[in-house]
Write a structure and sequence with these properties.
2 helices, single chain, about 90% helix, rod-shaped
């Protein structure tokens, strides 16, 4: 019997389904985390630009 055929036997189907579900969830969490970290990076960058512009304005007014 082939390995692929054994994966879909009723006794192994639950384990296979849970494994696939775990992998899909892991990929989803990873991709969501990447987007979140990208957003944080953009926010920090925008804050840095604002501080730099503010410091430039103060320096010009002195």
């Amino acid at each position: 019997m082939e390995m692929g055929a054994r994966l879909w036997e009723p006794t192994n189907m639950k384990t296979t389904s849970l494994t696939i579900l775990a992998l899909v969830l892991a990929v989803t969490v990873t991709l969501t985390g990447c987007n979140t970290m990208r957003g944080v990076g953009q926010d920090v960058s925008a804050t840095g630009r604002s501080v730099t512009q503010g410091a430039g304005s103060v320096q010009k007014s002195m």
